[in-house]
Design brief:
15 strands; Peroxisomal Thiolase, Chain A, domain 1; 10 helices; 23% strand; 334 residues; alpha+beta; five-stranded mixed beta sheet; single chain; four-stranded mixed beta sheet; 2 domains; binds acetyl coenzyme *A
Length: 334
């Protein structure tokens, strides 16, 4: 497969670190120095499906296709607005599509798993054009009294349309059962036949330092394996796009791999951790900054709760956009 179109959507409400100081025992200095995050977008009044639709519509328009051309819609999300129907089904009609729809639940590695899934469908001849949307509303799952987690996350959606091509050079996926270090939970309605168990509080729980160590190790290992499969050394990658979990994770992976300086873009300062949406959003920013050129080789790496992880090597094929969007989509580079 190859990428034909790209889109994104951000909820309008921006929450800066100083606003969090009003509701939590935290500080802008602590958050920026430990995570690199300055602000994040928060869904307020909107829906995850609404973000997914907006990002999907932009990606479709950018690809020059219409919803009727789609053979499948894949959405990655930690949690849509409802348990069911899926987000992909919810947005299908408004996209003007009439194709199978499914949501993939692979936490922050969702976009990489979706690229690999789409590639398999296209290679097998079962599909030609697939819309992938990674849409997240983690602010709704966060425990806003837990300063160690709620400051990290932001809401957003990123989308790509893929079609037949030679863009995905290699992919490396993995998963490991480790619920103990990172999980999100929510309480359902009580059932009269269930045992009177202790109520589990809703929210995201994390052993931050364990997740940090896992993320750095698995991301570096995945990227090396994917690069090896593609037979392109990491040092020759034009861009390395890492899941935007934490600025210090991004810097540690870059150091461990010895990536050429200036090749690891980051937008976590503006968006926080947007889970599976973070890699397509970063790709969007790089593209719209006019920095992605046809023939560029990109290494992508996502990792998250599960613990799941995935990396892939992509050859970019799209021409530069006619107009560069800046400074709204500003990037930092490691
Ligand atoms: N503001 C102020 N103080 C805080 C905050 C906050 N928001 N959060 C925690 N602290 C305090 C803690 O209570 C603790 O205080 P204490 O020493 O009095 O007990 C102190 O800061 C140090 O806590 P640590 O958890 O040791 O802080 P650490 O330096 O490890 O930083 C962090 C925490 C940023 C979460 C770090 O562990 C990390 O980056 N982990 C990686 C996990 C991650 O990025 N997850 C993202 C989601 S998962 C994913 O996408 C893969």
């Amino acid at each position: 497969m190859k990428i034909l179109g790209i889109g994104c959507a951000l909820p309008p409400q921006v929450v800066i670190n100083n606003q969090l100081e009003q509701i939590l025992d935290t500080s802008d200095e602590w958050i920026q120095s430990r995570t690199g995050i300055r602000e994040r977008h928060i869904l307020s009044g909107g829906t995850v499906a609404g973000l997914a639709l907006e990002a999907g519509q932009e990606a479709l328009q950018d690809s020059g296709l219409t919803g009727a051309d789609l053979d499948m819609i894949l959405v990655t999300t930690a949690q849509g607005d409802d348990l069911f129907p899926s987000v992909s089904c919810t947005i299908q009609q408004d996209l003007g599509a009439n194709c199978p729809c499914m949501d993939l639940h692979v936490a922050c590695a969702g976009f990489i798993y979706a690229l690999d899934t789409a590639d398999a469908y296209i290679k097998s001849g079962k599909a030609s054009h697939i819309l992938i949307v990674s849409a997240e509303g983690l602010s709704r799952l966060s425990d806003w009294s837990d300063r160690s987690t709620c400051v990290l996350f932001g809401d957003a959606a990123g989308a790509v349309v893929v079609g037949p091509g030679e863009g995905l050079l290699s992919c490396q996926l993995s998963a490991l059962s480790r619920r103990d270090i990172l999980f999100g939970t929510y309480t359902g309605l009580p059932c009269p036949f269930s045992p009177p168990e202790e109520k589990v509080a809703a929210g995201i729980r994390m052993e931050g330092q364990e997740v940090f160590k896992f993320a750095v190790g698995i991301s570096a290992a995945d990227l090396l394996k994917a690069a090896d499969k593609a037979d392109i050394p990491i040092a020759q990658m034009d861009w390395v796009l890492l899941h935007q979990a934490n600025r210090r994770i991004i810097d540690a992976v870059s150091r461990r791999l010895g990536v050429t300086p200036g090749r690891v873009p980051s937008n976590i300062h503006r968006l926080g951790n947007t889970s599976s949406a973070s890699i397509p959003l970063l790709m969007y920013d790089l593209y719209h900054a006019g920095l992605l050129e046809p023939g560029h080789v990109l290494a992508l790496s996502g990792f998250g709760s599960g613990m799941v992880s995935g990396a892939c090597i992509l050859r970019w094929d799209k021409p530069k956009p006619s107009q560069v969007k800046d400074p709204v989509h500003s990037l930092h580079f490691t």
